[in-house]
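Deviation from plan, reported transparently: adenosine-5'-triphosphate complex.
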Amino acid sequence: MVATGLRHAYGYLTVLDLDTFTVAPGDRHAVIGPNGAGKSTLLNLLAGATRAQSGAITYNGQTITRRQAAWRARAGIGRTFQHPSVYPDLTVLDCVRMGGWHHRRHPERTPLEVLDLVGLIDHADVLSATLPHGHRRMLDLAVALAGQPRLLLLDEPAAGLTDAETTRLLDILDGLPSWMAVVLVEHHMDVVAALATWITVLHHGRRLTDGPADRVRADPAVAALYLGPGGDDAAGQ
Ligand SMILES: Nc1ncnc2c1ncn2[C@@H]1O[C@H](COP(=O)(O)OP(=O)(O)OP(=O)(O)O)[C@@H](O)[C@H]1O
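Because the crystal trials were delayed, the predicted structure below was used instead.
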């Protein structure tokens, strides 16, 4: 996927102004930055949940800038949400079935296998709205994985998880196929450190820097962004 000239504003407030953003098969691309930096806005534009006010997005060589989110999902762009609330009236299993509806004939994994992967197999018949937060996040991930995405957009998947849940999440993400591209918006630097090979840092909607994960995490300007000048450790923790 290649996005160029993406710009988004709410009224007079420009919240994203990004010259280029590229993801290739197999990438593990983290997008980090302080609250309000425009990370979720970027993900929403890539997923089609928000329509780009200017700029262009291509995917597999095809222009998808005006394509709706559902079309993009069918084309292989899966996503999770910062505040997951997947189909509250459905059972956990039916949510995952919905996530994989366009792969009914040739699913790589059955819905039950996906639930097993994320540790929710014992909750298959429970109404999704009754799940505690960590389980709801895992269900959100299961729904995205059931769609067999080629590009997976993750919006703060570790937010609010316990240590044990975070470990499980890291195991799952670490086991994703190498052809799948992942874009990860995340505040937890240990999660970013474990997964990301490339990091883009957003600040006030613009790219502060980007590059190989080790180099960006060691960048004093990135540490200063999180802790203020002199904060050595912020991006490297
Ligand atoms: N629907 C909206 N209407 C008005 N302003 C909005 C709306 N959604 C987001 N914003 C503003 O856009 C800016 C970027 O928000 P965004 O959620 O993309 O940031 P973020 O980097 O994901 O932040 P966080 O880490 O806190 O989730 C913020 O200033 C936010 O208040």
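Residues 10, 15, 33, 35-41, 82 surround adenosine-5'-triphosphate (CB under 6 Å). We consider this an acceptable substitute for the interim report.
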